[in-house]
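Allow me, if you will, to draw on your knowledge of protein folds for a short while. A protein sequence and the structure tokens that stand for its backbone fold form the material at issue. I would ask you to consider whether the tokens describe a fold that such a sequence might reasonably adopt. Thank you for your consideration; the sequence and its tokens are set out here:
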Amino acid sequence: MTELSAPATAPAAPAREPRAYPFALAGANFGIYVALLTPVMVSMAFKIQHITATPQAAASALGLVLGVGALFALVSNPLVGRLSDRTTSRFGMRRPWIIGGAVIGLLALALIGVAGSVWLVLLGWCIAQIALNAVMAAANATLPDQVPAERRGKTSGIVGITTPLGILGGSFLVNMIDGDLARFTVPGALAVVLCLLFAFHLRDRVLNERPVERFTFKQFLGSFVFNPVEHPDFGWTWLTKFLVMFGYAGIASYLPYYLTERFHLSEQEAIGTILLANVASMLAMAASSPIGGVISDKLGKRRAPVAFAGLVMVVGLVMLAVAPSVGFVIAAQGVIGLGAGAFFSVDLALATQVLPNPDDTAKDLGVLNMANALPQSLAPAIAPAILALGNATPLGAIRSGTSSAR
């Protein structure tokens, strides 16, 4: 094991990243995504279904839990990012947040697993969102500390593929595990193990002097905003990430209900179908994500993969909306994955090159990561309006099913 810390106060990255760093960071991200996305994509829908009386009540409760929880993620990511930029622990700037957040996240997921009411599920999910997004903010803030700008595309591509791998891994776990407690705690335990491995091998920066400025309420509010006029590249990057994540994750939380209500699948059949859909998505991402990162490094540009991602994802989402069969749903997820992989391949690399202030790296990455959480909050909020559209969307199929259930 490497030394616990490599003291340094300058934000400049080394000439070359530590050999194991990209894979260790990818491992930590994989664990976080398994812990966060397994509930969002699969297990939360069924957990709430188990403790509510009707399909309509389950759909409404799911929107409440995921929407409110995402708001807490919205606050946690940039706030912890800023706090980690000011952390003077002898163990490093990022390591305490990575370890502490992973452990608290596991405990919160266990609370959800044993919860017998929607309100207790909501409490556990809010704590889990705060803790695990804190881990994400601190872990990803190590990228500009560890990797020179011209080599970040490769690392970003490796890290980018952890999103579909996390979804796929979570689907496998849920498919093999029975019981709500295990479906939440096993992904959380995996996150703890992988984050601990990353933290113990991280050559974390140590801030030797406490920042002169006090952390004021004004700075607290400033943790969540930036000026898009002064930093237009960062503004466009934020908006692009938000739109891609809205398309990628906005419908996914309701996919279990879509499959059970529209295609009349049982819970286990729906879980198996989601697993196949995630396999298709992962294979497509595996093809487009690493290749996109390497190509963008060679070109020295990031725009082309982003434009390609948007166009391909639109095609996949339209396919999903009009899917006549379960097989078509799986194919649509593959197309969406192809586009998402192209985006994730350059996402983190692009972000680190347009940061407004190199001294507030984690804070600015936290603001950018708000674009991950905000779609999870907005999608449940606008779900009633989408439900009113009828069968033209996956949520419309849920509406039809709940209406017939009444």
Remarks:
- The first helix runs from residue 21 to 51.
- The CA atoms of residues 388 and 396 lie 7 Å apart.
- Residues 21-405 form a domain with the Growth Hormone; Chain: A; fold (CATH 1.20.1250.20).
- The radius of gyration is 20 Å.
